[in-house]
Amino acid sequence: MTNSPSKCSSCFDKSCAVSVLSKEEQELLSGNCAGVSLKKGESIYNEGSLTTYVIYLRSGLVKESIIGINGKEKIVQIIKPLFYIGVSSMLGARINNFRYKVLLDAEVCYIDSGIFKRLIQQNGKFAFEIMTALCHENLGNYHRFIENSQKQLFGRIADSLLYFKDNIFKSDEFEIPVTHNDLAALISTTRESVTRGLSRFCRENIISIENRFVKILDNTRLYDISKNG
């Protein structure tokens, strides 16, 4: 982990929300924000910790998960750059409800939660941009959870591959940034089932996998499996 000063007004990765702040508000944000470089595997926030910071993801990928009553991890989503982490917990409770772990080396900004709340209260446009982004992500997660609960194993595995293809990397070729255990936690199944499903897709020439590099060979069949469950 390495730290660096942050200047929000000149940042190339600033969010749409920051863009609507006044010069004075951006200076206030910069004075209460620290840029940090994080390596793969590092934790950002742990479940149950105080929400003293809101975290802005500038680059990399982050896993958001929660531990269920049976002690098993459930992955809520894979967070992409230009997203604020911890806003729901900050506004809903003082205790963080999720755990966040870096999947790909990341650049983040830690923002004092008190300052972030003040900006939401005093600037309606800023608040609107934050809430719009948050609602968009939540609706996407709700739809994905419902679809997952109504599909059989191979439909869920197809969904997970399309999730990375269409939502995360926007490419037919990508390196899966998670383990088979993580994939299982994302689609609510077992590691063995994930391995069996991926092997079947490879045998049927729907995908190819070398180490963690995936290539979608037959988009039509993959979408059909996802649709029909």
Write up this protein.
This protein is an alpha+beta fold and 229 residues long. The protein folds into two domains: 2-140, Sandwich (Jelly Rolls); 151-228, Winged helix-like DNA-binding domain superfamily/Winged helix DNA-binding domain (Arc Repressor Mutant, subunit A). Helices cover 45% and strands 28% of the residues. It is built from nine helices and ten strands. It has helices spanning 16-19, 23-31, 87-92, 113-122, 124-149, 153-169, 180-187, 191-203, 219-228; strands spanning 2-5, 33-38, 43-45, 53-67, 73-79, 83-85, 99-112, 173-175, 207-210, 213-216. Strands 1, 2, 3, 4, 5, 6 and 7 form a seven-stranded antiparallel sheet that branches. A hairpin with a 2-residue loop joins strand 9 (207-210) and strand 10 (213-216). Helix 4 packs across helix 5 (124-149), helix 6 (153-169) crosses helix 9 and helix 7 crosses helix 8. The longest helix has 26 residues, at 124-149. It is elongated and about 60 Å long. 33% of the residues are buried. The model has no long low-confidence stretch (mean pLDDT 91).
